Amino acid sequence: LKHIQAVLLCCFLTRTRFFTIFPDYSFSLDSFEDTLRKMQEFFGLEVTGQLDSNTLEVMDRPRCGFTDVTRYSHFEGRPKWDKSIITYRVTDYTTDLSHREVDTVLAKALKLYSDVTPLVFKKIDSGTADIMIKFKAAAHGDFSPFDGPQGVLAHAFSPGEGHGGDTHFDEDETWTQTSEGSNLFVVAAHEFGHALGLAHSQLQTALMYPTYQYVNPSGYKLPDDDKKGVQALYGVRGTPDSRPKPQPRPTSEPLPDRCDRNFNFDAATLIQGNLYFFKDGNVWKKSSSWGGISMKKISSVWAGIDKVDAVYEYKTNNVVRIFKGNQYRSFRGNAALPGFPKSISHFGFPSSVTKVDAAVHVSFTSKTLFFVNNKLWSYDERRGRMDRGYPKFIHRELPGIGSRVDAAFENRGYLYFTNGPRQTEYHYSRRRALRKLLNNRWMDCE
Ligand code: TQI
Ligand code: ZN
Ligand code: ZN
């Protein structure tokens, strides 16, 4: 389910308007509040996750007040095929058209894209193809059952391993080569756009515009907007040098694999009962209610934060403090509190401390432990000052956890200190290291 890329609806809450605004993983793990937050961030509203009056007002504007970005878009993360020869295979045909007709129509729909990019499509008749195509009714093995006649006609997975690229047509539709029923060419051309990495376009004349318009297939060429969209991913056919330079991607670093045994993180913390793990520009949230993991860019959750060294929640004041270099910022929920960033010298660090490696608030003592190189500092939250006698050596104060800590968090009464890919589970009041774990045991990887 989470592999199907779909479209998030900005205005899905208003009864009269239904506009898709920007691509996202809609079935993903976002809660309603997450969706609202994303929308609020997008429209430059205060990010509250609540349906407040400002948000309602923007939603009520025609097209959510959305005017200027009318063009193609790609899926989040910009998935695409990393090769130019792409195989496809039809495993289940419709009974509405002959096999030959289906093969011809599908080849013609793919040709729209191979005409304008270096991509080559090869039909195979056995084994696993990149794009596996089938006509099936109702449930068909991917958690997105079709809905009988009308409604959803087809769907496609964005590029990737496994189901990536796979394209399914609802056999309960009447598939045609005319303007009656569902024209297979039109729908296939649209779905193959998704299978190649195009999300919906804002431009009405685009093939990827999310309403069905019959077009006469003979002599049909890919509309300009879709052409630009697919060429931005794969380059232009024929003129090798006119291939657009690999665009500076907003997320240029490859995504870390959370299930890698060597997975390590920059920071971790419990916030409102959910665990958050930070690595480079990304944050994984492990839901306490169902254990599932979702990932986001940190900046999409806490505006203005790209990378973090340490994070902790101080529940008593309902704040989250985020540290990077010699500065920190405070947030309530996703909202930045005014007056930040501030220098970490406010906690009583000398200027020789230019960053902290990790921080954890120990609810049991109401102290926050800061880790800097091989030393530990203890900050008394109630008194608002650093405890006397610190810093101390980590290996003396917390024996068994090693001499360095790159992330620390509390969960269900235990403390966890990570160092590289490993972590120690620690019982604070008994001052005992209990067991060693791999970081990725939190990551829902079996
Ligand atoms: N199927 C939707 C579509 O392809 C399913 C869907 C929504 C989707 N968002 C997606 C699939 C993102 C992949 C990625 O848009 S549909 C049209 C339209 C459909 C819709 O059956 O509703 C066409 C199929 F909207 F353009 F008319 C074909 Cl052409
Ligand atoms: Zn399907
Ligand atoms: Zn679509």
UniProtKB/TrEMBL annotation:
Q: Which residues bind Ca(2+) 2?
A: 130, 164, 166
Peptidase metallopeptidase domain residues: 77-236
The Hemopexin repeats extend over: 305-351, 353-401, 402-445
> Where along this sequence does the record place binding of Ca(2+) 4?
266, 309, 406
Identify the residues that bind Zn(2+) 1: 140, 142, 155, 168
Which Pfam families is this protein grouped with?
Hemopexin, Peptidase_M10, PG_binding_1
InterPro entries per the UniProt record, alphabetical: Hemopexin-like_dom (IPR000585), Hemopexin-like_dom_sf (IPR036375), Hemopexin-like_repeat (IPR018487), M10A_MMP (IPR033739), MetalloPept_cat_dom_sf (IPR024079), Pept_M10_metallopeptidase (IPR001818), Pept_M10A (IPR021190), Peptidase_Metallo (IPR006026)
Full protein name? Collagenase 3-like
Species for this entry = Gouania willdenowi
Lineage, top ranks: Eukaryota, Metazoa, Chordata, Craniata, Vertebrata
